[in-house]
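Hi R.,

Here's the chain you asked about this morning:
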Amino acid sequence: MDLKDIISTDIEVLGGQTVFKGTRVPVETLFDHLEAGITIDAFLEDFPSVTKEQAVALLEYANKLLNTKNLDQLYAAVA
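And the predicted structure, written out as tokens:
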């Protein structure tokens, strides 16, 4: 799944926050739920407009990004 099919940003949707595409659910909400020990399935029950495919694909992208051998590029992107 292409990242553009998973997330989007639009100034008209939640002031430009990154959300799951086609929803008003901030991506940050998934990570907040996981950090609190809430399962993906429980997150999806709370936010049925997000598909399981979107949530899993986002976590796979995050895993690849954070395990990249080019951490200098990641540091530069968030600086």
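The CA atoms of residues 11 and 50 lie 20 Å apart.

Let me know if you need anything else.
M.
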